[in-house]
Batch of 2 targets.
Target 1
Amino acid sequence: MRTINELRGKYKMLIKTKDFDFVNINEEDIITFSQGIYAYESTTKFIILNNPDNQWMKHLQSVEDEEPRFILLDPHMFIEGYSPIIPDGTLGLLKTNDIKDLSFFAIAVIPKSVKDITINLKSPVIINFKERIGAQVILENRDYFVRTRLFASEGTAQ
Amino acid sequence: MLVITRKASDSFTVGDDIKVSILEINGDKVKIGIDAPKNIIIMRSEVLDTMRNNIEAVATLDKISDLELLKQRIVIKNKEM
């Protein structure tokens, strides 16, 4: 006999997304952010959708609503030597004792011009895919910033 | 910006009902105590910064375009995400 929880994991779920209209997801792929994400503390269930044209770009989409959804980039792909220092208690929060179990993603802000894109290296979204839990964590690193430009800003300086 | 110098166990007040105490200084860390009314929101600057950035992150990028430019910025090309 299967428990209700085991059965529940098998169901497909149709969700309305911000970028891809309606998407069918597996309930077992849902990632729980028990503390939410800063400024969106009440949203705890998210799904990660791959951008169909760019596999290095992920969409962290609320399962309950079109928003919030965040664009995630792998900071290692854009910043050489990205080495996050996580505060005490983070591993416990993410139910592991090995940082290798965790995946780090930077939230991107993409204004009208992609040239003005910034990524958040200071407070990455950290996910333990094995346990399907995640959290946004403010790192101890003093030289990482919430708004890190990927392209040099153009032209106001003389 | 007003700059004042304080030692451990010194304090200062802001307005009528906010008191800030320097509790402990240890290397590059300062432990600070704040007595303030409940309706005063106190948060670490990086938390507020992160919250504001998240709100922007949700609001921007309705249409994803022009990503070719971003691809050029990738430093590690064959890493599995």
Target 2
Amino acid sequence: MKMTVIPEVSAPPAKPSVAEWIRKNLFSNWYNSLLTILGATAVFYTLVNIITWAFKTADWHPITVAPLLFMVGQYPREELWRVGISVLMITFLVGLSWGIWKHYVRPFAIFLAILMGILAIFPLQTPTITLPIRAFMLINPFLIYLGYRIGKLRSVQGRYVASLWLVALLLIPLVILPGFTNSSLLPKVQTTVWGGLLITLLLSVGGILLSFPIGVLLALGRRSSLPVVKWFSISFIELVRGVPLVTILFMFSVILALFLPTESRIDRVIRALMGIVFFSAAYTAENVRGGLQAIPPGQVEAAKAVGLKNIHITSLIVLPQALRLVIPTIVGQFISLFKDTTLVYIVGINDLLGMGNAVLKLKPEFLRLQMEVYLFIALIFWVFSYFMSYASLQLEKALGVGER
Amino acid sequence: MSDQVKDEQPIIIARDVQKWFDNFQALKGISMEVKHGEVIVIFGPSGSGKSTFIRTLNRLEEHQRGTIIIDGIELSHDVRNIERVRREIGMVFQQFNLFPHLTVLQNITLAPIWVRKWSKDKAEEIAMQLLERVGIPEQAQKFPGQLSGGQQQRVAIARALAMQPKIMLFDEPTSALDPEMIKEVLDVMVGLAKSGMTMLVVTHEMSFARAVAHRMYFFDEGLIVESGTPDQIFKNPQEDRTKLFLSQILEH
């Protein structure tokens, strides 16, 4: 048999040169060129206006005068070291996690290190940011790097670091920050004076970490064959989803307090956190249920056929696949939760937004500076939210290996 | 090959097994006894209940009437009995049903580690031997999605064998495969049959039946229409429905 040799054709160039790209996409004909020039001018003037406003017109005094208010609210300044210790614990753990889980944590670790570094040297003409505070900030990047080096050691295992995280996340909000009534080392600090970013992070991290497992259990409960479990899950999910978060927060902060005797009154921050956890758990449950439904029945059959028990089928086969599928939705939901924590302002908790409003009333001349304050707060929220969605993308990429 | 079949108590006893899906009766009274080391081929038109029947044997489907006794254990609502039976029965599915989030090696070692409580090292050692046996040891660290259909089905066979079952069920193991991959899976199955494994195979691969089956069962409309040795079935089928069906699948 005679074979015709087909000459090999080289693939077309993957990327055109910059000049070619510009010509093709921006100046392909006269009206495209016109639009390009008009558009570029508009962008240029907007940028110039924003920059002149930010650096000349805008008055950033509310932020530079009271940066600590935004960060921790009225937390007693002589007890500030406790917040400091908490931050050090967390940065060190972030470093350790970076060393162990590598690329999952790396972007967050680097972001945190850079942020702390910038904050340490940021020029603020205010007596509240003393040299020790700046020095403390500057320790953090090094601590992250130290943690990273330690985490890379072979003897350091993931589960040790995970349990350290658990200890820290319990210790910080329950022991270090609130303290005890009769302690001289850690005197009681009422949550009424906690505020700012501290509260926002506490509510959102607490909300996410607590609502996630509850939501997963509710999602599994909804599919359970036990009628009591099933109907409890369904009624919980449907009841909570039918009510706005504001209503739930009011219920927990006002009605719960009315029904419970005064001496057993639960702390108001915890009440707000409970409301957030309830709300978020119901939504997590529905999102996770979507993932559970997407798992083909053959997976469960195969797992049964090799003799796995139900609990192992769920934990080793179904959940890992279902949760991977719903990472984007769940992270999206957690980003909403993070922003929704600002609603606690209406039940009298001074989160980041609440602190902003308080700062505006600090001096009469601040009252007209709402734009600056809200922009600053928006920037903080944006940085965290953007970071969460970036981390979710990284996680999806890392877990996408071998997907069918 | 019948000399391999030991003359003793049957390992599978099914008596008058009946099964309904809502009002549709899928199994109308199936009785079958299988001895150690026997290779049974079950064939028949789609919807004839052949898959449903072998799925009742490891309780992926629940039978509503009749008795099923596997290796002396009767299948009932007793969960512990079901677990014991499933440990003794391996199953291979038409759609492979590998766990896509686990590597090939993890797919195979999962049940031995969690059900048989073997150490990870022991489970992996045996998994590698099994991968060797099905001819793809080099794929151990890959994910199922990175393998061809034939390779995936061979991993599925290795996964079922890792539990060291006494019985292997095959539910149309080659039906979802491209033609050029069918042979590599059948070769593994033939090897398994020759090693003395008790096998129930739902398939239309008549070459496999000719080569290794001890008995064949023709199912239609939830009943066993005819059974016999491959010789009897191919050369001298008694029932018209069997003749018609065989002529349809053997034509090409």
